[in-house]
Design goal:
Belongs to the ParB family. GO terms for molecular function: DNA binding. InterPro entries: Chromosome_partition/occlusion, HTH_ParB/Spo0J, ParB/RepB/Spo0J, ParB/Sulfiredoxin_sf, ParB_dimer_C, ParB_N. With about 300 residues, the chain is of the alpha/beta class. It has 4 domains: about 130 residues, Conserved hypothetical protein from pyrococcus furiosus pfu- 392566-001, ParB domain, CATH 3.90.1530; about 40 residues, no CATH class; about 45 residues; about 60 residues, no CATH class. The chain contains 16 helices and 7 strands. The strands form 2 sheets. Strands 1-5-3-4-2 form a 5-stranded mixed beta sheet. A two-stranded antiparallel ribbon has the order 6-7. The longest helix is centred in the middle third of the chain and has 15 residues. The radius of gyration is 27 Å and the shape is elongated. It starts with a helix and ends with a helix.
Length: about 300
Amino acid sequence: MSNANKKRVGLGRGLGALLQDSEAINTRSGATSLTALEQVSSMNEINVNFIEANPFQPRTHFDEDALNELAESIRIQGIIQPITVRQLGRDQYQLISGERRWQASKIAGLSTIPAYIRTADDQQMLEMALIENIQRENLNAMEIAISYQRLITECNLRQEELGERVGKNRTTVNNYIRLLKLPPVIQIALRDNKISMGHARAIINIDDSAVQLNLYNRIVEEDWSVRRVEEEVRKLQNPVLTGEKAKKGPLKQEIRALQFRLSSFFGSKVSIKADDKEKGEIRIPFTNQEDLERILGTLGNLS
């Protein structure tokens, strides 16, 4: 084996370098113990029961039907792409990447699975697992957001560096990370595909969490398109205020905030008029009888 193959690849060169295949691939049947040299460069058939899950795995849910389909494919065609593991001790390995293939292999009844053995510390394990999953698996938007955040905080990467690693620009990375600021209910809905990434990106432009939640409820109840949500957000961000007192003075911000909340709550462009004596009125417009009944129903829920 050449010195290049012996050399340990450090952080900073990306997944391709960290998982670089050795020129010397050694295939064995039922391997149970490897020398230090073999751990770095070989591919082996490992007992599936000797492998444990990756604690840094970003994917939290595996679709059961999809796993069964993969298992059936493995029964017929075998494992096309080996998994990657690190050795913890004799007959003890830990996944770096390939958990779906490992789980499906067990479902398919395989006793061994082909695997590349690599050396890696915990930080390398984390980076390899996160980047491999982001690039190769269909993670949902929240899993991607969490993976990006972990790469930044736990692997000490800047957004620019992260973008280079995963092949995304900084804006895209930032859009995902911003999702983590949404209320948990909305994050769960995005994870479960009740709303799309487009819906969530529009909602995140609202600062008030109560308004965000109300907007989310209307999206789900009325099946709003992304474009409709974007239009509503623009209206909420640019409310029409009337009255001299609303235009200047200490009451301005209070009126703007109140109008913003009411517009979101009623789903209508509420206007507030205030005079110099701080007297005024609140107007809630409606477009037809059905819209009026909707507003009255909202008011009725307050009692």
